[in-house]
Amino acid sequence: MTQKNFACRISRSEPGPGDGGRTGSWRVLRPVIDLEKCIPAKRNKPACFTCWLYCPDGCITRTIPPTIDYEYCKGCEICAEECPVGAITMVEETVFIKEEK
Amino acid sequence: MHVIESGNVAAANGVKLARAHVVAAYPITPQTPLTEKLSEFVDAGEMDAEYIPVESEHSALSVCIAASSAGSRPFTATSANGLLYMSEQLHWAAGARLPIVMCVVNRGIGAPWTVWNDQQDAFSQRDAGWVQLFACDHQQIIDTVIQAYAIAETVSIPVMVCYDGYILSHTYMPFEIPDSDTVDGFLPAFSPEYALNPAKPCNLNTVTLPDIRPDVRGDTAPGYMEIRHNLHTDMREALNVIKTVDEKFYSIFGRGGHCFIEPYNCEDAEYIAVCIGSLSYQLRDVVDALRQDRIKIGVCGLRVYRPFPDEAIRETFKSAKGIIVLEKALSYGYEGALYADIKAALYDCDNRPFIHNYILGLGGREIKTQQLLDALRQSCTIDIPVPQWIGLKM
Prior knowledge:
heterodimer; A: alpha+beta; Alpha-Beta Plaits; two-stranded antiparallel ribbon; globular; B: alpha/beta; Rossmann fold; six-stranded mixed beta sheet; 18 strands
């Protein structure tokens, strides 16, 4: 056989970060957490974490304060939609490109 | 053990001897008696397999895909519109590189409805990425089913074993059912290179992006194009595997030896009639009759359609004056697909033979020996436009 193992013949993935590639580059809108409004950050207690629960890609940490992994966050906006206190706003990526420049 | 049974029963016995673990099939004429026989085997405890009744052919092949992914040896069978209903899953099974074996009992495709034999069903799935083997009699059916598992599991490519509906599936003929211990020696238990395992979870056949990507360990995972390229190169490699499996089978069972092309009276032949399936045996009578008229003609039955045995075709046909391709299928708006493939294979030959094409037997239209005799005689004498039709009444 030309291929050494089955892995070369099909597309397969194992659980773990980044198997779909660095999907953060797909993002058009970036979720930004306002720590003044965020419940666990404001109260310094492990509460709420609705964003962590809803994030379909597991990009948000269950920490105080919660953090977002922009390497993989696709910017789907679910966290911003679900946050009960409206602490997450979606900011256009172009803003950050300008800042980086 | 020698028996006199139908082609479908020959196939069922092959599946039983191959120790298929999972059988999932939906009944369709003329395949039905094959799966009925398998359900009888399972019910009687003669076959240690799970018989999964399904609501469609699409589900039948889906069940086989799942069973094969979990590391078992599955079997399904279908005909005509049933094969087409599977079409999406056919491509999936090949892309997922699962060594599934399926019998395709060749039948014409509707509309209009027909239940009788031609080969348009298998030919229409030529490019699905399956190995396509054809049997010409009952002995070849049972032998090819057993060999199909050996081929499929070596190259990780699914295999279709095709045979003519009614002409082979429902007629009775003597054949030998090999001894099960001998078959076990030829075909060891299936040990997949990779199978689903709850202890080590993973996703199979995940979405690919246009480019390659690093996997979780940072190794390069193949992209869609690499996976397709590998399927193609392994499909070409399958030609060698088919040959090796045939040689091994011959050394154990004493049958075979012509895995790509089965020649008859071809040693000194100036003209060679070519076809796929049971027709090649009918043509032997025609060739014998023409030989009495001093026409040096032979017949070749192709046993493999994909991967296409182009080298064997060049080797066998290069010194002939003329090749006559007879087909029970047609690429509408052009010509017979087999004819086109053979023409392409011979393009590089220094002295290309002329090639004629006849379309015949569609929807079970009777193929009379006299018609074949007239057609071959005509092809050996005059140049004719292609394709010609045999038995057309208009």
